[in-house]
Amino acid sequence: MNILILGSGGRECTFAWKLAQSAKCGALFIAPGNAGTLEYGTNLAINPNDFEQVKKAVLDHNIKMVIVGPEDPLVLGVHDFFLNDSDLKGVPVIGPQKYAAQLEGSKEFAKEFMYRHNIPTAQYKSFTVANLEEGYEFLDSLKPPYVLKADGLAAGKGVLILNDLNEAKKELEEMLAQQKFGAASSKVVIEEFLDGIEMSSFVLTDSENYVILPNAKDYKRIGEGDVGLNTGGMGAISPVPFADEEFLSKVEERVIVPTVEGLKKDNIPYVGFIFIGLIKVNNEPFVIEYNVRMGDPETEVVIPRIESDFVELLSATADKKLDSFNLKVMDKSTTTVMMVSGGYPEAYDKGMEIKGLENVNDSIVFHAGTKLDGTTVKTSGGRVLAVTSYGDDFEKALKQSYQNIEKIHFDKMNFRKDIGFDLK
Ligand code: AMP
Ligand code: GLY
């Protein structure tokens, strides 16, 4: 079966690595891909948000399944585009349709869904510029810290957590009246602050059935000790040591089952990954957010722990046969450490030569922001490489990742040396 992956990061490189291991994978294409995905398939210079180009690639290369990596094409309706096109409607797309993608694309939509289906989450109210005064009053009624969320997609920057009431009011005014995050903040969700430790669950659903994938914890801040600016993620660990069986069964009963059943009750078809951002408060799970895709860098630790054939797993998803799929997961821990460009997540340089990749032993280097220039691998983004390792526990796996990072070099490279610091 010929397969097309949309996207270009570490997540998509990991999908390509895993798909290429399957005897059922024919020609594999990645659009646009990176220097790492070239090891597993053919890169196509296509923008995943340009659906006509995607269509041409699917027809030119006789693609029989499309896996959507990032949220943008889903929120823009790539799956709907396939269903509405007579040439494409028989080609399965792994990733939800536009309506369901609002679970990630609109915080208010997600909160309403959770309330409707009694899924535990922070209390909230949403406001527009028309009821800004009520927003101030709601803030007056809360205790600090104050959590303000732009309703729409804001490239991971739309959530503000503020200790000072006046500052929270000022930010609310800037978001609503001055469109601080553009149209994304024309509506703002204000919610109760939850104090706990975060982790993520990953579910694959075919609209009827689901399988639970390995869980993971990522490290979002740029600085050691979890300080500084938010990034897409500086490293991840799977499984999460503090998520014991009792807690995970609460997650399944109170969050996963009501989510999948809720989609059914609301008549929302959903074929694809659900990434559930959770916070554990007094041993109880609360949902912080849904994403309608896999996480990055979580994918780089979740997928390597799956023993089952990935083409078979995704085909069972497309065929609505997940009920009879026996997912096999490795008993080992995995960790990944992101190597990023100096300056990221703010301004950084590109085009640095990456040296030493051939010296890596017993780790897998998933490429994120890289490209091939002749025969030289160069940096082409902020997040450059994810160095993933296996171990009997996460500490052993981490040691392996850090040993291999020592062998890799590019100018101004940066990485966090304390992934997992809070779990020891
Ligand atoms: P989100 O984009 O909704 O995942 O929010 C980004 C980050 O803000 C989360 O990963 C949490 O660290 C934090 N956060 C969001 N909502 C809350 C909340 N209600 N209480 C505490 N922290 C939160
Ligand atoms: N690592 C967080 C995300 O993929 O959204």
Structure commentary:
With 424 residues, the protein is an alpha+beta fold. The chain has helices spanning 10-19, 51-60, 72-75, 78-83, 98-105, 107-116, 132-141, 165-176, 245-265, 299-302, 310-318, 394-405; strands spanning 3-7, 28-32, 42-43, 65-68, 93-94, 124-128, 146-150, 159-162, 187-191, 197-205, 210-218, 221-223, 227-230, 235-238, 272-281, 284-291, 333-341, 364-367, 370-373, 376-379, 383-391, 413-414. Among the domains are: 2-97, Rossmann fold, CATH 3.40.50.20; 123-191, Dna Ligase, domain 1, CATH 3.30.1490. The chain is globular, with a radius of gyration of 21 Å. Bound molecules: adenosine monophosphate (AMP) and glycine. Adenosine monophosphate is lined by residues 122, 147, 149, 159, 191, 193-194, 198, 277, 288-289.
**Helix residue percentage:** 25-40%
Give unreliable regions as ranges.
none
Radius of gyration: 21 Å
CATH architectural group of the domain at 2-97: 3-Layer(aba) Sandwich
What's the CATH first level of the domain at 2-97?
Answer: Alpha Beta
CATH topology description of the domain at 2-97: Rossmann fold
Shape: globular
User: For the report, how would you describe the main beta sheet?
Assistant: 9 strands, antiparallel
Mean pLDDT: 97
Ligand set: adenosine monophosphate, glycine
Structural category: alpha+beta
Strand content: 25-35%
Q: Give the terminus-to-terminus CA distance.
A: 44 Å
Beta strands, count: 22
Number of helices: 12
